[in-house]
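input
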Amino acid sequence: MTGYSLRRRLLLWLFLATATLGIAALTDTWFEARRTAQGVSDRVLAGSALAIAERVSLNAAGGLDVDLPYAALEMLTSTAQDQVFYRVDGPAGALLTGYENLRPAAPPGAHGVFFTDGFVGGSAVRIATLTREISSGQSPISFSVTVAESTLARDALARSILIRSATRLTALALAAAVVVWVAVTVALRPLDRLGDAIALRSPEDLHPVTGATPTEVQGLIEAINNFMQRLDQALNALRNFTGNASHQLRTPLATVRAELAMAARATDPQIRGAASARAETALVRAERVLAQLLVLARVDAQAGGGDFGPVDLAALARRLTADLVPVAARAGIDLGYDGPPAAFGTGDPVLVEEMLQNLIDNAVRYAGRGAHVTVQVASGPDQPVVRIEDSGPGLPPDRRQALQAPTTDRRRPPARTADSTGLGLGLPIVQEIAALMGATVSFDLPPGGRGLRATIRFTPATGAAQGGAEAAPTP
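output
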């Protein structure tokens, strides 16, 4: 995916926002400039009309004379190359002097100053008309003074205001662009340093990213750290799986290869049959080890946080016991179950089944002929408990102590190594599954002082319906 520049994006958005606001501001400035220029022009026109009106007087015949003050017209043409027009009308609109084609702005019979836009000889003009009365001793005589000028000065003033506003706005936009460029460069320096620190790390270094970073990118840093933690877990799981596969499968496969080679060379049918039987036994062991490795892989897959629910521990334990009764009978072991009809704990059904099967299988496999193995489920008020107890030779105290290693730290599960007593991966699997589901596993001596008792305490299943289940006594 092609990257993009944050600086360029900010500058682009700044340009678009400034352009939009600038167009709106300049439009408003243009109309305001026109109003301002027109107001200035109207005041000048009104002053010129008033100066002319002051020079209107009565003559001896009772009519009106106009002594036109040309200075009043000169002040209109002093600001630009404007054309100036005027006319003075007496009673009933009779033209006394001025331009005949200039139409007054005042309606008939009105009094005061009136403004309008019009045309004179094809030129756009602004027109001001002042209506007044002069006393004749009998009745007042009305007259009007109309002054007009072309709009060159007015338009020039409006354009000047608009250009000055546009210049200021452009300067502000350029200054803001420079400020944004510098501010973004300074603000991104911590990210640049963070990127350099990550780039200098070795591939094996998956520790959390630390350092002073802006608050706005804390979410990104946390996401990176969470990803690195999951990646570290996945790599550890891969290393554990490959290491265990290499260690656990090497011996049975080597045995299979050696026994098959012996069977191929043997001429005696009995020797060939014995070698084939030993090869089959090694294959069965390899199959079991592979199944356990796959369970460990599943545990690793859920180590990031499993979604566990209610599991009927009594039903699982009862079914597993029934399935292994024929195996126990062939080994000369009395295998039985004791517990309530139902007892619910929190966990994953497949993993709980694997955990219980490992413990029951170990008890049947190593208890010895004539021993008793009991699978007991107790649904107490605090937490459900499953116990697998046998009357076999048990384990030495130091070995039981080693099995008591804490399993509460789910990020560092127990070491997956074959145990020296021949228990293989079974007990490490039990400990890892228990740690994953929040259960605890302990090993001690049964009340008779002989054999081994494994106790698993599960987290109670919230809201699980345990209809009809009675709590079994806890020995």
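quick obs: The first helix runs from residue 6 to 53.
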